[in-house]
Amino acid sequence: MEYEISLLTSMAISVLFALSLNLITGFCGQISLGHAAFLGIGAYLSALLSKAGLPFLATLPLGMLLAGVIGVVVGLASLRVRADFLAITTMGVGFLFVGIVRQQEWLGGELGVSAIPDSGLSKTGFMLLSLGLCLVTAALCIYIRKSWMGRVFNGVAEDEDTMRVLGIDVPRYKLAAFAIGTALAGLAGGLYAQHLKFIGPDSFGFVESVTVLSMVVVGGIGSVVGVAFGAAVLSALPAWFQFIGDYKLLVYGGLLFLMMRFSPGGMASIVTRVVNSRNKAQGDRT
Amino acid sequence: MLFLELTAQGLVQGSIYALVALGLTLVYGLLRILHVAHAALFTLGGYLGVIVTNATGSLALGFAIAMVAAGLTGIAMYRLCYEPILKQPPFVALIASIGLYIAFEELFRIIFGASGLSYQAPPLQEQVVLFGGLQFKQAELMVMAGTAVIIGVLGYLQNKTRIGVACQATVSDPQMAESFGIKLRQVRDINFFVGSALAGFAGVWVALLNNLVEPTMGSVPSYKGLAIIVLGGMGSVRGTLLAALVLGVVESFGTIYLGKLLDRNAIAFAFLIAVLMVRPQGLFARR
């Protein structure tokens, strides 16, 4: 049971993290290849404050705040560069974060931060907290999607210039997407640090940023349910793949490639296609 | 003295970057795809170079086989992977490419082992002393010279031959080029072949400089290459070359003067971000 609880907790954290990126990349169309940096900011702040004696639950909002503020700064970059340029710029932000953390003694340097104090919650309690926050985030995402702001996000993703012509203050909405998305990533980071009890610079590098982006894309970019499902599956995949041992990453990379090659809309589009063809078949019969 | 040495080291590193990034630029210019899997061909080149040289004793043969194999694999990647998804949004190709790169990296590890291979008798390792007491490995001098020659030849071919002009036309307007009778597929094949062969070429050089090839040797060039084509202004060959050399030199100075604050990658990307905030179209874009 211990193992299942731990797996479920890390799945919940991955889903939360993927949903936070989906808000920026899926809803608002701003691609980010450095999202793990914000997971890292939340994780480091929560870990260091917990070690300084603050209760765990109090460190979460502070982590969100710091990640969100830095997220807005990075968002300012998205006002300057677009599309592929933005992808590379955010990738740079990711490397910058890892590079800075690695060289700072007070952040634990190469060795990272270990022996993070307990949250005071039981394992099951922490799992429930993670699942709860994950559900709240999903609900928030669906709410945003349906709100005025969500519609503007969608418009910015589709055609930014038209939105400007329509008199929408595009920069404000882009910054809002970055602020919310990165703050949620900071929240996921706090949970992540508490769950693993150890964090190091390599936990938040380029590979993690790519992994979370692939969760979003494999799930079906922009679709809340799809992304949640994709993140849950991909985060559990390495554990399920234990039996193929050495070939784990090969299969992972191969699947990622095949998914994009044969179903670019991700799992969400496979489901839609199946449902549509079934409806159509039924329609033909009646 | 330190100044000269750092510049020289930066130029050596920059030449390698340039060779890798040129292929990326060619692909980006043609297809608007960030071709991460390009670095897998760099690794492939390194491995083949070491294996063939060890088996036959001829470095020249190693270079030839590495370049041809990398080039052909490049064409296969285009035909099998990118061509079918050209109509999709750009992040689809990006993720596909990343997946492909991970799979390749793992293949190298599973086939050749995680610890890597080296030359039994590494060639071109003698020290050469130049004017002013600058010391180089023979291989370091040759990689700079080789890069200069290859880029010169490519520039000439691009401007003076039919096929080169066809490539340029395809980059600037594929539809118009096609209606003038240019075979798009042929042009793209050639570009992938040349770009990938250059990556293979760079791989053999890196194997010579470090006397080691390992499965992960492509990861640094893969993302540095992307940074360089952005710095160079996306799709501009001349810009890419200059950006690669500039980045090499910035890194070698940065690691000395800023090493306490940032690591090597962070210095490169801090420079990139600073440049992009001032010039969002890249350092050398002709816009």
Oligomeric form of this entry? heterodimer
Order of H and E elements of chain B: HHHHEEHHHHHHH
- Output mean pLDDT of chain A: 88
Q: List low-pLDDT spans of chain B.
A: none
Tally of DSSP β-strands of chain B: 2
Q: Count the domains of chain A.
A: 1
Question: Biggest β-sheet of chain A: count, sense, barrel?
Answer: none
The geometry of chain A reads as: globular
DSSP summary, beta strand count of chain A: 0
How would you spell out the order of helices and strands of chain A?
HHHHHHHHHHHH
Overall 3D geometry of chain B? globular
Average of the residue pLDDT scores of chain B: 87
End-to-end CA span of chain A = 49 Å
Termini of chain B, distance in Å?
Answer: 38 Å
For the CA atoms, what is the radius of gyration of chain B? 19 Å
| Strand residue content of chain B | under 5%
Protein model, in words:
Chain A has helices spanning 2-27, 36-51, 56-80, 83-103, 123-146, 148-158, 160-165, 170-196, 206-219, 224-240, 248-262, 266-285. Chain A has 286 residues and is mostly helical. Chain A has one domain (2-204). In chain A, helix 1 packs across helix 10, helix 2 (36-51) runs parallel beside helix 4 and helix 3 packs antiparallel against helix 8. Chain B has 287 residues and is mainly alpha-helical. Chain B has one domain. In chain B, 74% of the residues lie in helices and 2% in strands. Chain B has eleven helices and two strands; from the N terminus they run H-H-H-H-E-E-H-H-H-H-H-H-H. Chain B has a two-stranded antiparallel ribbon. In chain B, helix 1 packs across helix 9 (219-231) and helix 3 crosses helix 8. The longest helix of chain B has 30 residues, at 2-31. Chain B starts with a helix and ends in a 9-residue tail after the last helix. The model of chain B has no long low-confidence stretch (mean pLDDT 87). Chains A and B meet through helix 4, helix 9 and helix 11 of A and helix 4, helix 9 and helix 11 of B.
